[in-house]
Fold:
Amino acid sequence: MLPLTVLLAAAGYAPAPSASAVAVPDFTQGVITTRVSLPGNPYDKLLSQVDPAKGNVQEQLQQLAGRLTAAEQQQLQAAAADLSPAMTMGALLLPRKGTLYCRGREVRATTDALTYHLENYFNQATNKGLLRLVAQAAPQSVNYSYDAASVEKTWQSIVVTDSDYTLRTTPETVLVAGYPSQKTTYTLKPGAQDTKPAGPGQFSGKPVALDVWTSRQIPQSLNFAHPVYVNQAYGITRLVVYFDKEHRQQMRYEFATVQPRAVTDQELKVNTTAPLLDYTKDALQIGMQTMSLMLGGGTKEPAATDE
Structure:
């Protein structure tokens, strides 16, 4: 009797190539779409159905809530009761989808959350950028220029260091948006936790673990586009952050699509409005206006200018 592999080959079947064997050219220019979710968060499924581009977020939420059955409402309330305030706030403020326009060492990221629209241009050659934050429901915005060093600590809401985490590069390789990506795990070391959970559903500032997938074909410079800082030599295509020991509360970031193509000057442009602040001089003002805008308030929108 012939071996099964010979029979399959004769019938025209061939094993699927492994992710590591897939030949993909280096990504240098094009458009990447991203998605973010909160597996285990009771609000995630509901909020992920809201599309800020369709307008009136409050009305969309009311319609979605109205479709829940009595049993679903009770289940949501019970799950939310054990959720930490940080995870509740994260569910409300987290942008679910984003787009990266990449050309060489220049990147413009755009994303929409329930309460705000964000555009962020960064030039790695100069280490300088331009950011515009606009309220979804009102003519309000915050606009400022920055350099990488001045915003590093503020933007990196989660920082993963070798001193706090045990790192293990695994042989596991998968395709993420068509790009072979190798998995590395990070586990919080005993004693590295800075605070203890206050109660059920609570977690401290440091995640207990992370799974990170990187691709040699994706430039490392794109790693600035997500709120988790992990020192990796290659571009991160997917990461999962675990906030509790049971791994029930998670944040998942990943590339959805990658489209290599020419990117125009216009696609890299951020149209700001006056006043254009400078983060090195106006950090306190920017921080206060940003928080106010994200929570539903902000500064009234002036006339648009080109930068």
Remarks:
- The CA atoms of residues 117 and 134 lie 5 Å apart.
- Residues 29-294 form one domain.
- Confidence is low (pLDDT under 50) at residues 1-16, 197-203, 298-303.
- Helices lie at 4-10, 44-47, 57-66, 70-81, 85-93, 148-155, 279-294.
